[in-house]
Structure formats: C-alpha cells, structure tokens
C-alpha cells in the first residue's frame, strides 16, 4: 500500500537519525578533507589540554640575553623579542583560542536557546518584544559591538568570552525561535496540552529536545567564528592583554619584525588558519549528519 | 412517530463560530477572515457517537477542536456538563481538560518521535492526581496497553518502530489515560490501511461499550461514519446542512448535498448497485474566505431558487431527530 511504503520510508529515515555508527559513517564518508580536519581538531584539543607537558618552558619566561634567536635545538621555533620560546607560546595559544571559542559559544547557546524557546512559545507581546530586540541586535556588526563591550567586561579570557558570546546570542535566538514555531504546530504538542500538561513542561519535554540538534549545529559553526573574533580583537589590541600567549597578540607583536624574523607572526598565523579551516570542515560535516536540511542556512 | 425524549446532552454547541484572520504586511493587518466554522449548533448525548462528515476543508477539525477547547472559538457557546466552557481560561478549564480528549488523524505526527511508548503513556498517567507511586503508574500503563490491544512488551519501543495501526492504538491509549468522557476522533482511520481501519473502528466500539465513552466522530468518508455513528451531521463550508439518524440516512436524507454524497457510496447489493445513479456535483467548493451569499451550497445545487441565493437557510426540524437546512424542503 502507498501508506505502508511511506511509513517504511519514514522508519528508515528516522532510524538513520538514531544509529551513532551510521552517523559516524556518513560523517567520514564526506572525504579525505573531513578526515584530516577531524584529526587536526583532535590534535589541537590535545595540545590545548597537555601543552604544559609538551615543552620545558612556560610562555611567560623571558630571557633578554636570548632574544630573537633563530631556531635551535633548545628553541625549535626560536625566541621572540623578549626571549620567550615561540613554540611554547604557539602551543599555549591553542589553549586560549579553544577555551574562548568554546566558552563564548556555549554561553551564547544556552542564553540564545532559552530566549528563543521563550519567544517561540509565548508568542504574544513577550515573543515579539524579544524578537524585535534580537533584530536590533543583529543589525549591529559583531566586531563593532565586541569592540565597545570588551573594555567593560575586562580583557581576560573570561571577559572576552562573555563579550563574544553576547555578539553570538541573536543568531541562536533566531534559529531556535523558528524551530519552536514550526515544532509547536505538531500534533504531539497539541496532544500534550490536551492531556493537561503545563506549558512549561511542554517546553522542556517536547520542544527543547527537538531543538537540540539545530543548537548543536549552530554551536559547531559558531566556535570558529568566535575564535576568529578573539584573534581579531587581540590583534588590534583590545582583546586579551599582551603577556598572555593569544595568537592574535603574537601576530601583532611579531608584525614589527615581519621582514627580519617572519616566523614570529607566521607560526601563530598558520596555527590559527589550520584551526579555523578544520573547525569549519568538521562543523559542516556535523551539520550534514545531524540535519541535512540546514545546508546553506548556516 | 413522536420525537424521542432524551436526557440532558453531555455537550451542547450553540452558534459556534471560528474565524481565522488573514493578515498581511509589516503590522499584520487583518484584511480578511477564513470563516472555517460559521455558526453551527449541535448536541451530543451521553454514550452516543455523533458523526461529522464533509469535504476536506469544510471545517470539521476546527469544529472538533473548538468543541473540546483546543481552539478558542470566536463566538458561540460550548456547554459541557451545564457549564459554558467556550471562553474559559486555561486555569478555569482545568477541571474539564482531561475529560475532553482528541484522537488525531496522523498517528505518527501525534507522537513525539523522541519519546518511547512508556514515556508517552506515563506522561499522561502521572498527570492524574490520584496516581502517585511509580508502581501504580507502571501498572496503569500496562493496563492501558492491554485495553487498546497492544502487547505490554512494546513499552520500550519508539513510534518509528511501530506500524500505523499500532501508533493509532497508542494514541487512543494516551487519550484513555485521562479517563475521558468525550473523545473527539478526528478522522482517526483515514491514514490507515483499509484492513486496519476495520480493526480500529471495532476497537472504538468496544471501548465505548466498556468505558461508556461518548464520541464526536469526524470523517470525510460517509461509509465509515455510518458504521460508527448513531447520528450524523453533514457539514458544508462551515455550516451543518443536515442532521439525521444514521439508520435512516439512506431512505430519508433530504438535503441535496447529502443525497449527492450518498449517491457516491457503492452498495454491496447487486440490484441496488445497478440502479444507483451517481449525482455528480458541478463546480468547486467555494473558498471559506469569500462565501457566496445565501445558502453556501446554491452555486452547485440544481434546485437553487432566488431565495437560496439571498437568504441563508436555518436548520429546521422535520421530525424524528432529523434537521435540514434547505429552503426547498417542506416541513
Ligand atoms: N490555524 C488556521 N489558520 C488559518 N486558517 C485555518 C487554520 N486552521 C484551519 N484553517 C482553515 O479553516 C478551514 C477548515 O479547516 P479544517 O481543518 O477544519 O478542515 P477539515 O474539514 O478538517 O478538512 P480535512 O478533511 O482536510 O481535515 C480551511 O479552509 C483551513 O484552511
Ligand atoms: Mg481535518
């Protein structure tokens, strides 16, 4: 029967949504680029976690006698203008980038999803108020907003993460809001309210779990944007404060020696580039696995 | 035969209207209304099955949802157990909420794909104030599954692991978890295979006998409704055109629209079937946005007169629980 065929197809589709093994399969089937990028992302994460054990130096330890040395056995990438080991600082930079990226996206995801859910479910005055606010927020370029807010929240990792998170909130609100609007038309939401379930419980039990996939997809694509913004801020000198080994800081300091000692700026630059590209490729892969319909939207 | 005297109706709907606004532009200005339900009245008595038939888009689902206050009607009264619930707020509605249940047309869409069978039923069971302990809730879930003919071993399954018929049974079990008095069945079998349709229809009848349920049974298929319902209301474009006992519908239907619908039903009697002449209705169903003046059916009715084009006919009783809304029917 036609209907049975449709049901069978639906079953297959929904089954495809459940198996973790199949998800991994679709993910890695995308090609060599995805595999390399996943490996890179994992390496970066490992570096971020274990960097103190990877080098004998700390990123702050200066030695003016050894400044601007070329590569050697002790200092694989040489030393910078204050005699600090460049490799050590580059490795520690991964930690700062990843922590800021994840922290800011995480808090933007939590706040954005909560606001989106509220707006989508209450509609009415509160809903349109929140959405107009979001629209207004979206009309401000994120970099400019962050530049204004950065001095207020402090130029530490936490402060910068909060600021970058604020700039990312509206895109989460939009996405979740749209999702809730379509989800709440589902019969199972009507059914839940008919059996006497409260609005809040419906929000938590039926709408939120079905919004999680889009939030995850947004999150993965957001981390790399956040890292870029963090590096931008540090580079122009309003982000994380200088002695901290953020890649943006290192690029801007190394810029002064670009002709004579190019590796000072190029090493962190290459790291940044590799991390951003591999995060984007992995993010695309995750999106295709979780929700192929979002292709082109994010 | 005299009018049968009946007890108080369980649900009484009076002049129910449901208009959906059509909006456009930045400020969502309403430029027109969809008159999905346009002033209908009916009564449903305890323990009966009241059928509601009509073409797609004539407002059946909207009527059903207004009757149990899933939607708030624009106008009119919905009297349940002697109380008008049409305008009650969510908190005021609470004592009645679980007594008025709904079965959906699409069994898959009415089940959250991320909830297991057990979780779906337990959610409905624990909202019952009387049941507290986990053990009692589990027992009740098993009891409900057995009641609708599902194996209690199915508890750990997810909706996508079930057949259409099983899903519809699960939807029924969820409604029963609330100990309902009135159940609105919104085309509960039209998404199912013909062989399964019969099983589900029989399940509905069994449950009615066992639990003393009252049904508002919606369908677009007169054959199914005739099998289920005691009385049938025929809807056309937001209005009821005829209400008649289902036993009499073949011999006594008076409204031209009902007669046309009946002529489309095949019969199993060979001689009857050879005699059957189908009445083909011409033209389209007008849109509920721009309804014709007068009787909504007049553009397609071959008996239409000048009165029909100008005056909208009211529902008149022609005896034996039989009401018709047509100018050309003599009382
Ligand atoms: N939320 C809504 N907003 C606007 N118009 C609506 C809404 N719900 C229903 N309608 C309109 O009201 C009319 C009646 O819809 P309804 O769903 O009650 O029809 P139905 O008789 O149940 O049809 P079907 O047999 O296809 O289920 C339709 O024209 C529909 O487009
Ligand atoms: Mg319908």
Explained architecture:
The complex is a heterodimer of chains A (298) and B (331). With 298 residues, chain A is mainly α. Chain A has a single domain (23-56, 86-295), classed as MetI-like (MetI-like fold), CATH 1.10.3720. Helix content of chain A is 74%, strand content 0%. Chain A has helices at residues 2-18, 20-28, 32-54, 86-122, 124-138, 142-153, 157-183, 187-194, 199-236, 247-254, 263-290. In chain A, helix 4 runs parallel beside helix 11, helix 8 (187-194) crosses helix 9 and helix 9 packs antiparallel against helix 11 (263-290). The longest helix of chain A has 38 residues, at 199-236. Chain B has helices at residues 60-67, 90-97, 117-126, 134-147, 164-176, 194-211, 222-228, 249-252, 256-263, 270-275, 306-310; strands at 11-24, 29-44, 49-53, 75-80, 83-84, 100-103, 182-186, 214-219, 231-236, 239-245, 316-317, 323-324. The model of chain B has no long low-confidence stretch (mean pLDDT 88). In chain B, helix 6 links the parallel strand 7 and strand 8. Chain B contains 11 helices and 12 strands. Chain B starts with 10 loop residues before the first strand and ends in a 7-residue tail after the last strand. Chain B has an 8-stranded mixed sheet, with helices on both faces. Helices cover 31% and strands 23% of the residues of chain B. The longest helix of chain B has 18 residues, at 194-211. The interface between A and B is medium-sized, with 23 and 34 residues. Magnesium ion binds at residues 60-61, 186-187 of chain B.
């Amino acid at each position: 029967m036609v209907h049975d065929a449709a049901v069978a197809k639906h079953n297959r589709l929904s089954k495809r949504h459940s198996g973790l093994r199949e998800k991994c399969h679709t993910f890695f089937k995308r090609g060599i680029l995805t595999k390399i990028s996943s490996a890179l992302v994992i390496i970066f994460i490992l570096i971020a976690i274990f960097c103190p054990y990877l080098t004998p130096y700390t990123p702050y330890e200066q030695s003016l006698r050894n400044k601007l040395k070329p590569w050697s056995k002790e200092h694989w990438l040489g030393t910078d203008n204050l005699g600090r080991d460049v490799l050590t600082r580059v490795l520690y930079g991964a930690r700062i980038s990843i922590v800021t990226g994840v922290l800011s996206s995480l808090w933007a995801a939590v706040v954005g999803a909560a606001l989106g859910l509220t707006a989508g479910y209450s509609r009415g005055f509160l809903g349109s108020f929140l959405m107009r606010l979001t629209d207004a927020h979206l009309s401000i370029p994120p970099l400019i907003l962050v530049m204004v807010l950065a001095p207020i929240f402090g130029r530490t990792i936490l402060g910068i993460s909060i600021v970058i998170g604020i700039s990312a909130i509206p895109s989460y609100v939009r996405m979740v809001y749209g999702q809730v609007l379509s989800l709440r038309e589902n019969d199972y939401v009507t059914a839940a309210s008919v059996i006497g379930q409260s609005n809040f419980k419906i929000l938590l039990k039926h709408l939120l779990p079905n919004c999680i996939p889009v939030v995850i997809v947004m999150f993965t694509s957001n981390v790399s944007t956040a890292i870029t913004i963090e590096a931008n801020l540090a580079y122009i000198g309003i982000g994380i404060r200088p002695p901290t080994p953020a890649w943006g800081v290192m690029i801007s300091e190394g810029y002064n020696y670009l002709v004579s000692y190019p590796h000072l700026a190029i090493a962190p630059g290459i790291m940044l580039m590799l991390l951003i590209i591999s995060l984007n490729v992995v993010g695309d892969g995750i999106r295709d696995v979780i929700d192929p319909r979002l292709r082109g939207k994010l | 035969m005299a009018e049968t005297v009946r007890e108080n109706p369980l649900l009484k709907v009076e002049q129910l209207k449901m208009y959906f606004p059509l909006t456009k532009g930045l400020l969502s200005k309403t430029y027109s209304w969809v008159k999905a339900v346009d002033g209908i009245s009916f009564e449903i008595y305890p323990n009966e099955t009241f059928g509601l038939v009509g073409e797609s888009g004539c407002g059946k689902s909207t009527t059903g949802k207004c009757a149990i206050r899933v939607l708030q009607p624009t106008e009119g009264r919905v009297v349940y157990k002697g109380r008008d619930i049409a305008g009650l707020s969510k908190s005021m509605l609470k004592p009645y909420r679980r007594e008025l249940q709904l079965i959906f047309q699409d069994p898959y869409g009415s089940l959250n794909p991320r909830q297991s069978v057990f979780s779906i039923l337990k959610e409905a069971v624990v909202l019952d104030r009387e049941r507290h302990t986990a053990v009692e809730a589990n027992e009740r879930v098993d009891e409900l599954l057995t009641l609708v003919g599902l194996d209690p071993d199915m508890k750990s399954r997810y909706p996508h692991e079930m057949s259409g018929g099983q899903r519809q049974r699960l939807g029924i079990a969820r409604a029963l978890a609330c100990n309902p008095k009135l159940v609105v069945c919104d085309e509960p079998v039209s998404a199912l295979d013909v062989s399964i349709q019969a099983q589900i229809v029989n399940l509905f009848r069994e449950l009615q006998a066992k639990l003393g349920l009252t049904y508002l049974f919606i369908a677009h298929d007169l054959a199914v409704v005739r099998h289920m319902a005691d009385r049938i209301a025929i809807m056309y474009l937001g209005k009821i055109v005829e209400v008649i006992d289902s036993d009499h519908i073949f011999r006594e239907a008076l409204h031209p629209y009902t007669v046309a619908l009946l002529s489309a039903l095949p019969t199993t009697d060979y001689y009857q079937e050879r005699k059957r002449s189908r009445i083909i209705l011409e033209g389209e169903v007008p849109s509920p946005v721009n309804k014709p003046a007068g009787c909504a059916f007049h553009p397609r009715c071959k008996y239409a007169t000048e009165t029909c084009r100008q005056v909208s006919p009211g529902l008149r009783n022609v005896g034996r629980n039989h009401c018709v809304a047509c100018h050309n029917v003599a009382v």
